[in-house]
Amino acid sequence: MNEESLLHLLRVYAHKGIERWSNESPQLKARATRCLGFEIAESPQDVETALYSRFRETDSERLLYIPMPTSSNKIGKAFFLLMQEQKQDGHKSIAFMLFLIVSKLEEPFDERDMCLAFRWEPAEEEPTVHTYAHVQLCRNIAKGRQPHRGIPSWLPDSYPAVPIGASDPTMIFLSMATSVHGFKGGIREILRDLFQNEPLVANQYLSALKSQLMVQ
Q1: What single-letter DSSP state applies at residue 113?
Q2: pLDDT by residue (tens digit) across 130-141?
Q3: Exposure letters 167-198 (e unless 16+ CB within 10 A, then b)
Q4: In this model, does residue 71 exceed pLDDT 70?
Q5: Cα–Cα distance between 46 and 21 in angstroms, integer?
Q6: Helices assigned H by DSSP within 105-187
Q7: What are all long-range contacts of 42-45, with beta carbons under 8 Å and residues at least 24 apart?
Q8: What is the reported pTM?
Q9: Domains of the chain: which residue ranges?
């Protein structure tokens, strides 16, 4: 799937995310600000900034965390970060960061310190051993330049690097979204809702996702 269709998918998904985000509780918003600073997309203009910003090794344009439209009952809120990087050989690498603010469990704890982050990445070039699309935990975001807090310092961030079966950015994103929403009753219904005026587009995404997930 081409980059134009990916941006269209991310845009409509992000708009649904910020619509839901606007109705979240002040307590959750304050908690997210403590964890992520003020780098959270909250408007259509912020979405455009997030979609067209570039990450660079030496410096980056403004990268914004985009709220995801729903969360499971064990996640206080999920956000994703689009990481577009121009490599030295000229090709563009597109990866995603998934940031989770974990909901309160039975045991008391400081809620600000209960976060997790995952990198969803395409295959890397040799001589790295991660020459396949994969997802892994991470402790730092955007080489440590992106604000975040609450990620335990003891988490491993190189292994396990779990294969995800496709390096196409659209499929990486859909796999990431499925991990948060689930499939039936989750991303399947979200895609149908987002593209109710473009059913052929929804069916294209669902067909590709079903094939990758090996579900009916």
Answers
A1: G
A2: 788 999 998 876
A3: bbbbbbbbbbbbbbbebeebbbebbeebbeee
A4: no
A5: 13
A6: 169-181
A7: 42/18, 43/18, 44/15, 44/18
A8: 0.89
A9: 3-166
